[in-house]
Amino acid sequence: MQAQALPGFRDFYPAEFALRAHILDAWRRVARRYGFEEFDGPPLESLELYTEKSGDEIVDQLYAFEDKGGRQVALRPEMTPTVVRMVAARANALKKPIRWFSIPQLFRYERQQRGRLREHFQFNCDIIGEAGPLADAEVIALALDVMRELGLGPDDVKVRLSDRRVLAILLRGAGVADDQLGQAYQTVDKIERTPRDRLEAHLAQAGLEPDATAGVFRVAGLRGWPAVSSALADVPGGTEAGEDLEQVIGALQAIGLGECVEGDVSIVRGLAYYTGVLFEVFDAKGAMRAICGGGRYDQLLASLGGVDLPALGFGMGDVVLGDVLKDKGVIPETPSSIDVFVVAVTPEDMPHALRLSRELRDRDLRVEYPLSHAAVGKQLKLANARRAPYAVMLGPDERALGNVVLRDLASGEQRTLAYDQVASELVDLVAGAAPPVGR
Ligand code: HAM
């Protein structure tokens, strides 16, 4: 028998589930603030949806198999092909621009390492049917607002912004031939993780002259829009190629997010379908993998779905984000599972505890009572372990007078009140509308 979860797959015990819920709730709140509608698709798709356009890296990582009907299928490793398939199928009926989000669990057979598992939850936000750069700025602002919602500011995270067309024209300007561009992109993508001499050897093998190789490193090292735009001014057509990127940066400055954004043409992104502006969100120290990545994929609806619509979006995983939140100490405390514990002092009080519990639950309070009789001290211990803020004690003396004792478990203060009042009193206390129990 397999005693553990598979490598790269997580068990979510309640404490881990609480962190996951904290992240997913923030994703949903912020997406709704931006007017995005939630959707979902199937976790299993036909294999060819990915083999056609996603690129070799992700195809190598597929969980793919033949189903019992002889179909070649794969667990979804990303959401973008599904979005494209769904939008293309109803392209005429959907009001453009489409603003959709989803939170799928995705599966990639990756080498397990920090920030990389074999399943993760990924927040996907996409705008389909809008070609202008304000759409790019909109999704980047959304991603940054998620960071803010979770307690991460400009000192904690940065957006690195690039454009495939800008990188291509700068690399051509540096002497890279068209048929060497793919190899040059791969080099730029690995530049921060791989020793320079290894990359130089790769480029030499791909036929690059030493000058062009040096150019690849020079271009990849450009940081900040001023440096990128002055490099663009030196190549024919460069300024035009940088117009969209410049406008996206301008819009982000107008929104007030300029300090979070850095022009950085070394952002290439592994997926094959991106066509224009690209971005990734990183922890400010750059110590971890990307928290989020996305960009424009203006050709994908035409090539996968036969409809010509510009599109863009991003995916943000819960794994790196969770690590960053832990690193910064901005994860919430384990929440209490109940608002009130109903204590039955003697076994004879139990029927009354059952009735009161039901009345309190009808008022939408979260309630627990002992499922088998125990001493009061033991019941209060359980209440504390549940982090219950309040206990209601039902004993023979109070019962004879139609009363209960309401106890604040943090301060230990308690007072007696009429049975009929306790539900309303607790509703107000839990809502923060009543003064503390002792007063
Ligand atoms: P991606 O860069 O492959 O893009 O993934 C986006 C994010 O998902 C990453 O930055 C990372 O946070 C997380 N992620 C990816 N793989 C793993 C993994 N094995 N373990 C943990 N986290 C992971 C895409 O998937 C694109 N489809 C995003 C997109 C949406 N582009 C446009 N729209």
**How far from one another are the termini?**
58 Å
What percent strand? 15-25%
Q: What is the CATH superfamily of the largest domain?
A: Bira Bifunctional Protein, Domain 2
Associated small molecules: histidyl-adenosine monophosphate
Here the CATH topology of the largest domain equals BirA Bifunctional Protein, domain 2
By DSSP (H or I, 4+ residues per run), the number of helices equals 18
Low-confidence stretches: none
| CATH architectural designation of the largest domain | 2-Layer Sandwich
Could you say which structural class the secondary elements and strand pairing correspond to?
A: alpha+beta
Q: How helical, in percent, are the residues?
A: 40-55%
Any idea how many domains?
2
Number of strands: 17
Shape field: elongated
Note down, in words, how this protein is organized.
- The chain is of the alpha+beta class and 439 residues long.
- It has 2 domains: 315 residues, 2-Layer Sandwich (BirA Bifunctional Protein, domain 2); 92 residues, Anticodon-binding domain (Rossmann fold, 3-Layer(aba) Sandwich), CATH 3.40.50.800.
- It contains 18 helices and 17 strands.
- Strands 1, 5, 6, 7, 8, 9, 10, 11 and 12 form a 9-stranded mixed β-sheet that branches.
- Helix 1 packs antiparallel against helix 5.
- It is elongated.
- The mean pLDDT is 95.
- The structure holds histidyl-adenosine monophosphate (HAM).
What labels describe this entry?
binds histidyl-adenosine monophosphate; 439 residues; Rossmann fold; 9-stranded mixed sheet; 18 helices; 19% strand; 5-stranded mixed sheet; BirA Bifunctional Protein, domain 2; alpha+beta
